[in-house]
Structure formats: structure tokens, C-alpha cells
């Protein structure tokens, strides 16, 4: 068995407000901790009324304070939106409050539209160009060797928080391999280049200090029956359909069938985007996830469950733990 973790997108369901959504995140994190999950991560998104994780560092601290052992982190911080020093200070503060429990995942995408990215940081495009150097700046700020530097991260210095490189294409695979960092791929929404990215990372890995570490994030929806899992998944499919139609809204309640909701071209596109999804009973998901882990020789697996009901999400979290402990 490899470590298994959870990515919380803090998606707001129709009928819930943001306060309830974040309270549900606490309950989800506590269930994940009880079920043996290794990490609980949040992703940075902006200007989306259905996603409540824009202040990612704040949420990490909140969840860490409501749990006791599970690692909490970012999947990820979109670094071009921020100053590397500020991120080092934020995460250094978190690591000081919750020693040995904080992870930092870094990505180069904006996590939003270009207008909002410019509002977050007018130098966003320049920061994208300097992304590799800014990752190394964070490494420097978090190192104990930075004590004599002119610019220091206090808190942060000496915490050596584990840094993961995140990717949804092949770009960050090159950077992760050259810096000897663990690599997590966003196959839960962009699986097309996953195989190529993992191959690049494995073949170009350059660190003798740490072995390469590959993690894939996938969608998991488990229910007592296949029919119920497919019904629950209609909320998930409609969310992706809204993305391609540019009609983003709150996560909708499940429906009995997607027939008549999407046309054949839309269905094909959604199914391509959600190819790395494991939907069914514990027995079917166990067989499929085992093949997936072995095919890509994964070091870890991360799941996300974008479903409407908190009860259905908690069921999936516990059931997936049982799956992983039976492999």
C-alpha cells in the first residue's frame, strides 16, 4: 500500500453558503484523518463563486487547528500570484504553529482568469517567466543556511517545509526533476499529458539526496452500488459541463441521468477531462485503482470527491481508505 491523501476544492454546493462549505471541510478533514489519509490539501482559486479556497494559507491553518496528525498543505499555491518571501513567511508561520504537519505544493498557473490574475499581481506574467527562480528563492528562505542573508523569512527560516511541484502539463515535470523535488500531477481535471509528464520526471530526475516521488490526483466516487455512484457522479459531470460551456455555478444536486443534458461532443470532452476518475463500488474501484497505481509506479495517490452531499463525500473517503488498506 502507498500513502493516500485528499484534495479539497472547497466547492460550494447549491443551497450551501461559504460558511457551511468551510465547516464541511473541517468534517471532511477529520474523517480523512480518522481514515488514515496522509495529507489534506487545498487548491488556490480566485473569482469563482463556487470555490471557497482563495485564501489558501488561512484555510490550511484552520484545518490544521481542527485536526491533530494529518499533514495539511497546498495543492497548490499559485506562486506567480505572490511574493516568494510572503509565501515563505506564511508557511513558516504555519510550520511553527503545527510542526511537522505542513506541506507546500507550488504551481505556476494563475488559478483564475487573466483579468483576475492581473488584479492579484500586476507582475503575474513576469513572475511566470521567473517561476523556477522564485521556487528556489522559497527553498532558500526556508533553509537554515539563509541566516546570514540580507533578506530572511521570519518565521520560516530553518523549517525546511517539504515542497512539491504541481503540474497539469509537462512544464513543471522538467523543473521538479532538475530540482530533485517530488511531483504531483493534476490528472483529476487534465489527464492528457500525465504519461508524458511522469516519463519526463522519471528520466530526468537529478537528485542523489532524495529518491523521485510521483503522486497523481484522481477523482473518486464510491457508493454501495454502481448505480448510486453513477447517480452521485452526475453533479461532478455537470460541473465540468459548466466549465466547457463557460457557465460556472454552484455544484448541483444529482440527477438520475445525463441523457438530454449534454450532446455527444460535450460528453466526449467531459469524459476526456475526467478520464482519471474511479466511480463505482469498493470492489470495482479497488481493481481499477490498483492497475492505475501499478501502471504509473506511483509513490502516492491523492483523491478528490466533487460530490453534492457531505454524507456521500464522507462515505467515499472512508470507503477509499478501506480500498487502499485491502490492496
TrEMBL record:
One of its GO terms (molecular function) is oxidoreductase activity, acting on paired donors, with incorporation or reduction of molecular oxygen. To bacterial alkanal monooxygenase alpha and beta chains. Pfam families: Bac_luciferase. It comes from Taishania pollutisoli. This is Luciferase-like monooxygenase. InterPro entries: Bact_Lucif_Oxidored (IPR050766), CmoO-like (IPR019949), Luciferase-like_dom (IPR011251), Luciferase-like_sf (IPR036661). Signal peptide: none annotated. GO terms for cellular component: cytosol. SUPFAM superfamilies: Bacterial luciferase-like. Residues 20-291 form the Luciferase-like domain.
Amino acid at each position: 500500500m502507498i500513502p493516500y491523501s485528499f484534495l479539497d476544492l472547497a466547492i460550494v454546493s447549491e443551497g450551501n453558503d461559504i460558511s457551511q462549505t468551510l465547516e464541511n471541510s473541517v468534517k471532511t478533514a477529520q474523517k480523512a484523518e480518522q481514515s488514515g489519509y496522509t495529507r489534506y490539501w487545498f487548491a488556490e482559486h480566485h473569482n469563482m463563486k463556487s470555490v471557497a479556497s482563495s485564501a489558501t494559507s488561512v484555510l490550511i491553518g484552520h484545518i490544521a487547528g481542527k485536526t491533530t496528525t494529518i499533514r495539511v498543505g497546498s495543492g497548490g499555491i499559485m506562486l506567480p500570484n505572490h511574493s516568494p518571501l510572503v509565501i515563505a513567511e506564511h508557511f513558516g508561520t504555519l510550520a511553527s504553529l503545527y510542526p511537522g504537519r505542513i506541506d507546500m505544493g507550488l504551481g505556476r498557473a494563475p488559478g483564475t482568469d487573466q483579468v483576475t490574475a492581473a488584479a492579484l499581481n500586476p507582475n503575474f506574467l513576469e513572475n511566470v517567466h521567473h517561476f523556477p527562480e522564485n521556487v528556489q528563492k522559497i527553498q532558500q528562505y526556508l533553509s537554515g543556511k539563509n541566516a546570514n542573508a540580507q533578506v530572511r523569512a521570519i518565521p520560516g527560516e530553518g523549517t525546511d517545509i517539504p515542497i512539491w511541484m504541481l503540474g497539469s502539463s509537462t512544464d513543471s515535470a522538467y523543473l521538479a526533476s532538475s530540482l530533485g523535488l517530488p511531483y504531483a500531477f493534476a490528472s483529476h481535471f487534465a489527464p492528457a499529458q500525465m504519461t508524458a509528464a511522469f516519463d519526463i520526471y522519471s528520466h530526468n530526475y537529478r537528485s542523489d539526496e532524495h529518491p523521485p516521488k510521483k503522486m497523481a490526483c484522481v477523482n473518486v466516487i464510491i457508493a454501495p452500488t454502481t448505480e448510486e455512484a453513477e447517480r452521485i457522479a452526475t453533479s461532478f459531470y455537470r460541473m465540468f459541463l459548466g466549465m466547457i460551456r463557460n457557465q460556472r455555478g454552484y455544484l448541483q444536486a444529482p440527477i438520475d441521468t445525463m441523457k438530454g443534458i449534454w450532446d455527444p461532443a460535450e460528453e466526449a470532452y467531459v469524459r476526456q477531462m475526467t478520464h482519471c476518475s474511479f466511480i463505482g463500488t469498493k470492489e470495482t474501484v479497488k481493481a481499477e485503482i490498483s492497475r492505475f497505481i501499478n501502471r504509473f509506479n506511483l509513490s502516492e495517490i491523492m483523491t478528490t470527491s466533487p460530490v453534492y452531499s457531505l454524507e456521500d463525500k464522507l462515505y467515499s473517503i472512508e470507503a477509499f481508505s478501506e480500498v487502499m488498506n485491502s490492496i
